[in-house]
Amino acid sequence: MTASNSTGGDAARPITVIRGDGIGPDIVDATLRVLDRVEAGLDYRFHDVGPAALEAGDELIPDATLDSIAETGLVLKGPVTTPSGKGYTSVNVALRKRFDLYANVRPVVSLPGVVSRYENLDIITVRENTEGMYSGEGQTVSEDGSRAEALSVITRDESERILRFAFDLARERGRRKVTLAHKANIMKSTSGLFLEVGREIAKEYPDLEHDERIVDACAMRLVMNPEDFDVIVTTNLFGDILSDLCAGLVGGLGVAPGANIGDRCAMFEAVHGSAPDIAGRNIANPTSVILAAALMLDHVGDSERAGRIRTAIRAVIAEHDRVTPDLGGEGTTDSFTDAVIERL
């Protein structure tokens, strides 16, 4: 499906909007209402992937969607389910590879009013997004089902790219420290190369503190003393795990946005699943996608509107105003969004 809704006149910036499936359409539509309220100046190009595309008789990732992403270079995406069964690959992984979205950025910030074990946390996980064990390369299973293999490849070029991205991000955002998470004590070739490159890159940023943590010890330290962390950079699989752990420290995936950034394209999304059990019930929390939209505005240089959106979200949750059931309230997706819009 392709449609357009301009919010900024002739000068509107085109973006590809993928509403996703399950609760995706509800929370993406809520986010577009917020973007319209702040007059973000965006021209929405609606396209499908995943189950929504298959139901429309198209491919899992239609050519029209790929063309739109290539043209706009900017994507706002709701959660997408990978259909069960052989032959279906992860839509998220496929899009990251197709558009070389090498940096996965997952910030988590404590929000007053969200039940969590900690307060005043502000941690960014930067995850290499294109290689390593999570990339899906070399996956084989023997004919008798008794042996399975997968290939993990780490390259110097990709390690340099993600590590420099993380250090640049820390510097640009006024951060104090970058932590390199690795498993070089056991995975001496792959994780060892990543750590070696990290040490080299760190020398180029004398204004930033850096430390190194073995990934399992890093996970333990995050649970015990999360205030020790500022920016974490790591490889694909480790980053997938640690970023979810960090989300849990501030209340869960429902309040954690995500960004996938490349040199020519960027995709901003909810990091949680499509929650089909509550789809269409108007009770899904749109915070993750709304905060992802704020990241998108930061990316295009509109930090003023991004800041207004974050301030409104914080106020609504802190005041427990019409919040959704997962936040302990009796509100709906619509009422929560109304509360945010009123504060804008």
Notes on the protein architecture:
Helix 7 runs parallel beside helix 8 (236-249) and helix 10 packs across helix 11 (333-343). The chain is globular, with a radius of gyration of 20 Å. It has 2 domains: 1-113 and 252-344, 3-Layer(aba) Sandwich (Isopropylmalate Dehydrogenase); 117-121 and 136-249, Rossmann fold (3-Layer(aba) Sandwich), CATH 3.40.50. By secondary structure, it is an alpha/beta fold. It has 11 helices and 13 strands. It is 38% helix and 18% strand. Strand 2 (13-18), helix 1 and strand 3 (42-47) form a beta-alpha-beta unit. The strands form 2 sheets. It has an 11-stranded mixed beta sheet, with helices on both faces.
Overall number of strands: 13
Distance between the termini: 31 Å
Can you tell me the residue ranges where pLDDT is under 50 for at least 5 consecutive residues? 1-9
Average of per-residue pLDDT values: 94
CATH topology of the largest domain: Isopropylmalate Dehydrogenase
Structural class: alpha/beta
Order of adjacent strands in the largest pleated sheet: 1-3-2-4-13-12-5-6-11-9-10
